[in-house]
Amino acid sequence: MDKNRIITKIAELDSYLEELDKIKPDNFDSYIGSIEKKRACERLFKISIETVLDICNIIISELKLGLPSNEEQIFDKLLEKKIISNKIMPKLKGMKGFRNILVHKYSEVKDELVFENIDNLEDFDYFKEEILRFLKTQGKENKIRKDKA
């Protein structure tokens, strides 16, 4: 498992979230009052979600779990291997769905919904915690395999 690649992606995610946290307005009126901030927040939120998907796909590829037939199956594969929990699963599916709205229905995106989502970034932290926990267990499993060899 190329842990460094995953950790690099987590660091990339952290940088997007830090930037988003710095620029997001304190209230909804300020959010809709600045088209530049609004679009920047939407963009940073979108690429943060895409980075989560990248991390998931890297793990699936590294563990040779097979190609997912659709984006929903990405999370199913990780849940099945206990890499992510039942607690984070619906949140990840929600993120993916929201990313699709941002990408495909940009003109129809409800500003209130975007602001609500960018004002609550804890789901990203939960995701990172679960991935980092998984990476730690991978290190222990590799050590056990080497000791037995």
Characterization of the model:
Helix 4 runs antiparallel to helix 5. The radius of gyration is 17 Å and the shape is globular. It has one domain (3-148): bsu32300-like (Four Helix Bundle (Hemerythrin (Met), subunit A)), CATH 1.20.120. Mean pLDDT is 89; it is low at 142-149. The chain is built from seven helices and no strands. 78% of the residues lie in helices and 0% in strands. 19% of the residues are buried. The protein has 149 residues and is an all-alpha fold. The two termini are 18 Å apart. It has helices at 3-23, 28-33, 35-62, 71-80, 89-104, 111-118, 122-148.
How is this fold's topology laid out?
Elements: H1 3-23, H2 28-33, H3 35-62, H4 71-80, H5 89-104, H6 111-118, H7 122-148
Q: Report the CATH C-level class.
A: Mainly Alpha
- Based on CA atoms alone, the radius of gyration comes out at 17 Å
Strand content: under 5%
Helix content: over 70%
For CATH, the homologous superfamily is named as bsu32300-like
**Head-to-tail CA distance between termini:** 18 Å
- Class of secondary structure makeup: mainly alpha
Number of domains: 1
pLDDT < 50 stretches? 142-149
| Anisotropy-based shape | globular
Give the second-level CATH assignment, the architecture: Up-down Bundle
Count all strands and give the number. Answer: 0
Count, helices? 7
Q: Mean pLDDT, as a whole number?
A: 89
The run of helices and strands is HHHHHHH
Kindly identify the CATH topology: Four Helix Bundle (Hemerythrin (Met), subunit A)
Major sheet, described briefly? none
